[in-house]
Specification:
By secondary structure, the protein is α/β, with parallel strands linked by helices. It is built from 14 helices and 22 strands.
Length: 433
Amino acid sequence: MWFEESVFYQLYPLTLCGAPAVNAPVSGSAQAGSHGRGGIGRLNVFAPHLQKLGIGGVYLNPIFESDSHGYDTRDYRVLDRRLGTNAEFRKVVDLYHSCGIRVVLDGVFNHVGRGFFAFRDVQEKKQASPYRDWFRIDFGGDTHFHDGFWYEAWEGHYELVRLNLENPAVQQYLMESIDLWFREFDIDGIRLDVAYLLPLWFISMVKDRIRAHRPDAFLLGEILGDNAGRFYDQGHVDAITDYPGYKGLWSSFNSFNLFELAHTVKRNYGEMYRGRQLFSFADNHDVERIATKLADPEKLPLIYGLLFTLPGIPCIYYGSEWGTEGRKEKGSDASLRPAFDAPEENELTKKIAEMIRFRNHAPELQTGAFRELRLQNRIFAFAREKDGNRTVCAVNIDDAPAVIDIPDYGKVTVPARTMSVSRNGAEFTAFAE
């Protein structure tokens, strides 16, 4: 499938476009036009940049009408007024498609914002509301919002009202919203927010719905832990987020212990998820930027070298390809989600583009089998193989060169702070340094 072969890029439209942090009152016009720095059209500036990088798919954080950050949805069928109109977003999708880039949207189906139309009706009419069963409500309780009733929320955050997905009317509303996304915007897939909280039967329902629109539609599930094979078997997702692999990347570098990363890869692909795909990343909108997390930022090219050669569907978080920093601060993720007028380019960006080009022309790096060849605290050599093609990768995170014995190659010198590769028996060349 196309998504297994692609390198993805993640964009957070609301913050990238400089939208106000809090939306206008619910009573305002939902299609009043953008109030950010160019609205959803700001994404157009990134399309040539991503095409140059070799990106095959973009994943967009929430874009629909919401109370604030996007994960507190008001209306699943209207682009957030801070970004513009549905018609404007369709033009963005068309541009990305013309650049050979697929578009995946964030599906936030576990919860909604307090501005969601059905919840507002319950606030007004209480037990008399026809939407009272769209949520899990106790009219004998209350919350700190003092609505006169208690309701189930996402992890105790009462600005995020949990939906009752067992209600057929809720299912119908969400499925018809998905239909609109595919019909009106011509999207290519959905990322399920907090998939770990969604019923497996509901995830399977979403998969059936999107595949009815596109036989190759991509369904990605956000999973924070591991041992999650049931999401493939019963939920029928195509991939889940690889948080253990993410931790292994930065932690192995910071502790000079590549055994951690190697163990995670072998556990993921040799035991837990054999024959399946994981969505891999060095950072995203919920964690610190890798340029901040990494103790030695000069080793950023090596992190990306591994991201593009180890098993997985790799994804770059916007701005990290030119080394943007961002620290997760208590009570605010604002520094993780900055606004940019345009993409930037530096030496790191050029190296990443070179790595992606290599991966795009090496099918074994996309879906090939993984085999460990040599492993030391600061040295990791492995092979990726498929249909007679073989790429051997060797990374050295030490400050001194290393000589290692690689099967079929003999003794190979890997320079300090370098990742070297050899495809189909050619000489080893620097892939990332």
